[in-house]
Amino acid sequence: MDNILEVIFQKIAAGNPQTPFAVEFWDGTSRIYGHGPEKFRIIIKSEKTVKNILAGGTLAFGEEYSTGNIDVSGDIQEMLQMYGSWREFGGGLSLATKARILFNDLVSRGTLSNSKKNASFHYDLGNDFYSLWLGPTMTYSCAYFKSDFDSLENAQINKYDHIL
Q: What is the largest CA-CA distance in the chain?
């Protein structure tokens, strides 16, 4: 796996020579990719996190970040601008490795089982949580603010009125 990561990060660095970055691994080692001072640092907190990212791609990276298994210090916008390179890292990987990553990616997508699991993970949080930011109408959608003085509750009712 270390070889795969090295190839991926080298490819990303080669495609973005103006954006040097560092990666800090769970064992305390770190590596700078590119030349010059790092613009951001990706901190990977476990080997399992890397396996999840290799299997699930950029979506898995976002999930690992949101659960705290990855941290980013420095200019996160620079990292996000490199998104295209992250998606096209496969050029230096062996055919077998590409096939394994593609297979894992396809298996993790869009199945009924995964859809139910993903929906449950993101939405089965209870009304106590949602009432904190959805307001009394529990509207999980945009609101229509007619004036700068409308409250969230008024804006949600305005939306219903506008639709009707």
A: 59
**Would 73 be classed as within a structural domain?**
yes
Q: How many CB atoms lie within 10 A of CB 71?
A: 13
Contact status, residue 92 vs residue 11, Cβ threshold 8 Å: yes
Q: Is residue 91 part of a domain?
A: yes
The range of the structural domain enclosing residue 17 comes to 2-116
What are residue 81's phi and psi, to 5 degrees? -70, -20
- Considering only CA atoms, give the Rg of the chain: 21
Q: What is the tens place of the pLDDT at every residue in 36-70? A: 999 999 999 998 888 887 777 677 888 888 899 99
Please write the tens of the pLDDT for every residue from 15-39. 888 889 999 999 999 999 999 999 9
What's the Cα-to-Cα distance from 76 to each of 12, 79, 133, rounded to whole Å? Answer: 15, 5, 26
CATH number at residue 20: 3.30.1050
Assess contact for 20 and 32: CB atoms under 8 A.
yes
Is the CB of residue 64 less than 8 Å from the CB of residue 86? no
